[in-house]
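Why do we care about 3D structure at all? Because function follows from shape, and shape follows, mostly, from sequence. That is the central idea of this module. The next example makes it concrete: a single protein chain, its amino acid sequence, and then its structure expressed as tokens.
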Amino acid sequence: MVSEKTDIAPDTILVGIGASPGIAIGESYLLDRARARAVERPIRPEEVEREIGAFLDAVSLSKKQLEEVKERVADPQMAEHLYIIDTHLLILEDQMLVDDTIRLIKENMINAEGALKRVLRRFREVFDRIEDEYLRERRTDIDSIGDRLLRNLIGEEQQSLTEVGRKVIIIAHDLSPADTMQMDKERIIGFVTDVGGRTSHTAILGRSLGIPAVLGLETVTGVVPDGLPIILDGTNGTVILNPSPETFREYLDKKQAFEYQERELLAFRNLAAETLDGFRVALRSNVEVIEEIPLAINQGAEGIGLFRTEFLYMNRFTPPTEEEQVEIFREIISKMAPHPVTIRTLDVGGDKLVPEIDLSDEANPAMGLRGVRFSLNEVRLFKVQLRAILRASSYGQVRVMFPMISGMAEISACKKFLMESAEELKNRGIDFDPEIKIGIMVETPSAALIADRLAREVDFFSVGTNDLIQYCLAVDRGNEHVAYLYQPMHPAVLKALQMVAMAASEAGIEVGICGEMAGDPLYALVLLGLGFRELSMNAPGIPRVKQILRQVTHHDGVRLVKDLLKMNTAGEITSHLEKEMYRRFPQLFSVQPI
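And the structure:
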């Protein structure tokens, strides 16, 4: 498969973000998705109205194009995701985008392209300051809409995916949700981009379609020529350029094995996650946006273990109203019925999501005014959300969960405001579930250390392992200098998890995990042995975790945990665990540990 017409050495490997699992083998198709190049220039007073008119025409044309995309979407899998296009249509009507562009044209006497570029730059600066990965990825929606507007302003047409006439792997700077929705799986077998991450809408749609994807390669469009043989592994985020015959045969075998395994995993979709000795675990999905729900259902999720509400506050001039939130929660609950939906209250730091939520920058936002600390500081905003969650509870099984709890006082305050919100609804004659279950995220060492006391105040625990590990080990996993110290199998982390699970068991409350550990098959037997009865994860991880749980006993997990807790270092524990999981499941852990 090696191409002789290229300077690229055989088996050149590029590493990015595995955004959609699977293996694709084929030729590259370089798609022109470079940003529109618009130049700012001064204008004369008599040109102002013409520039405003041109801008409004571009807005109208952009809306028309997106409506046409909605009409062309034929794949039934994509019908559930048209919500994304509706979101883009709403951005085109956003006050901040439209009004600020017109104002800059008038006040700064610059052309429409220049004014729009300035407004888009401000949007990007806001999103770049946001710590949360999912919220930060919403910047790509602004980029997509901004690029469409600029192209329509300068009259520059964009190459369309509908022009692709053969089986190819798309190489692009970026792909918009509109691009992804129009992909024909028979012709587009994979895609690779310079930018983007796992939580971008493009990645979500790629996973829903089952098209392998690697994103965030930064300069791939400048490296890969059109028509180059390549191999894409969306599971581990690698792209192999100009593969040798040996590599081609190796990945052909891997591709066949992956596809066989995927078919096998589908057989587990409607089966219970129950061990051989009858220990039942609820496998649920973490969900950020409504369009992820069909994928969660398709993968066999038994409800939503974590619904992040932060996206409701994005791309807006004002925070969402109580009515807006009720309607969104109601839709989620109806789609997931009869399974439960756990709604986490707003979990943001000092990031400016909408103008009304404007906190000064903090030196250390990870330990600042975030989670319930923010909500308890913004009580009016908090109670609007609490009333919405309570009202939604009248439509089905709903649980409310408070993030970043560090002590008893915060739980008391949260419960007080929840009771006040319930009383307000009662006085208005509005229905809600008076027995709604209340839970907390255990993600601080202080919460783990007094878990026995906290357990007496709530109905369930959900451990946010991402933050718990970082806080336990004093490690910022986003910092390349210390990221190697982020160790899920550190003895301190294991002890903290054991402490939380035991406290919940003794208090007779539910206990689960909603961090990344829950969806990693490597840790499934450990979490089982620790006693966690709910694991909530990104939907694609559910079948693999379920396959493991159905082939072991609870006692197997207990015995494994007992052995691991005797070890002194994360390296020892991880090595022992990897060997044990490979011994039991060689088909799932394809690389044998040394």
